[in-house]
TrEMBL record:
<dbReference type="InterPro" id="IPR008844">
    <property type="entry name" value="Spore_GerAC-like"/>
</dbReference>
<dbReference type="GO" id="GO:0009847">
    <property type="term" value="P:spore germination"/>
</dbReference>
<protein>
    <submittedName>
        <fullName>Ger(X)C family spore germination C-terminal domain-containing protein</fullName>
    </submittedName>
</protein>
<dbReference type="InterPro" id="IPR046953">
    <property type="entry name" value="Spore_GerAC-like_C"/>
</dbReference>
<feature type="domain" description="Spore germination GerAC-like C-terminal">
    <location>
        <begin position="1"/>
        <end position="155"/>
    </location>
</feature>
<dbReference type="InterPro" id="IPR038501">
    <property type="entry name" value="Spore_GerAC_C_sf"/>
</dbReference>
<dbReference type="Pfam" id="PF05504">
    <property type="entry name" value="Spore_GerAC"/>
</dbReference>
<dbReference type="GO" id="GO:0016020">
    <property type="term" value="C:membrane"/>
</dbReference>
Length: 158
């Protein structure tokens, strides 16, 4: 099957598949006073770690993504002036990316495509891997995604 991935989905595939040292992602922060708020993230470094959790016919994966990000641009109405605001922004970024990755994986499962390589990972970590059984259960495969983002401060302060 052929499917088209656009924009952020390509970045999500890259984040799932390999260590990343470059990338930009537009993060929606919601609406404040009738105005949409955004921040443009620059991904400085990321490292995915996969764990195969079950050995039955329907596997389960845990994906942990550690990343360091910087803010390239931010809406004027958003301020990050102290450590608690920075920590809150990190949690917001983590939730946004975690949701995006989970949605991307669910879309791939629905389309029955495996661009991230779950089948290859299971094959190399399971002694008696069966391709047909794996891909028959692939659409219902459980995945748990955890993201840890560290916000790197850079630039000048007015």
């Amino acid at each position: 099957m052929i499917a088209v991935a656009k924009g952020a989905e390509m970045l999500y595939l890259k984040l799932l598949s390999e260590r990343t040292r470059a990338g930009m992602l537009l993060v929606s922060l919601g609406e404040k006073e009738g105005e949409d708020q955004f921040l443009l993230l620059r991904i400085l470094n990321s490292r995915p770690s996969w764990t195969l959790r079950t050995n039955g016919p329907a596997p389960s994966f845990k994906i942990a993504l550690q990343m360091t990000v910087g803010i390239k641009s931010i809406s004027e109405s958003v301020s990050i002036e102290d450590a608690s605001q920075a920590e809150q922004m990190e949690r917001t970024i983590e939730r946004f990316i975690q949701t995006g990755l989970s949605d991307f994986i669910a879309k791939c499962q629905k389309l029955r495509i495996d661009p991230a390589g779950f089948g290859d990972y299971a094959r190399t970590h399971r002694r008696h891997w069966d391709r047909e059984a794996f891909y028959a259960s692939y659409p219902s495969m459980k995945t748990e995604v955890r993201v840890r983002a560290k916000l790197m401060q850079s630039g000048t302060i007015d």
